[in-house]
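hey m, so remember when u said the tokens were messed up on ur end? i reran from scratch. heres the input so u can diff it against urs
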Amino acid sequence: MKRSVLIVLLLTLVVPCLAFGQAQTAPPPKPGPEVQRLGYFVGTWKYVGKVLTDPKGTYEGTQTWEWFPGGFSVVGKAEGTGVSGGPQNELMIMGYSNTDKFYPSYTVSRSGAGRTVRKWSVNGSVWTCEAESTVDGKPAKYRYTTTEDSPAAWTYKVERSVEGGPWTQTIDLKATKVK
């Protein structure tokens, strides 16, 4: 009788511990195809761009993207020279929202003026998003487009419409993958 009670007591204590241990070793979730789509950007890219509105000028630099641990987001750093010839630095994070079905991106620039949150969508090889701001105190809409030209090249353009006027391209950029 004592032996039966001892066995029941041990089973009562051991079985829940084993079940708890199995729950702890469950495999982590895997990124879906929408998240894996971000892999296009992973690597090092050289870019050259033009600002087509005042102050006009060119800028160039390097972007490096890598997967964030866990594989659900990519993190990028950009370093280069701006239109004024001074240093340009940005930190970028991009992921995918299963709930809202868009790609949120977060960018912080060296100057602090460039903190942005955008909601990107992708259709084939074209990534787009829109935003609102002001130009000289007037309401403006912006349209951002990144086009995957090949596995090793993309173009980026920014267009704006001030007070409902015509869309004008403000930025033209080309990037080439170097590794």
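this time it looks ok to me. The domain at 33-177 is CATH 2.40.128.20 (Lipocalin). if urs says something different then somethings off w ur setup not the seq
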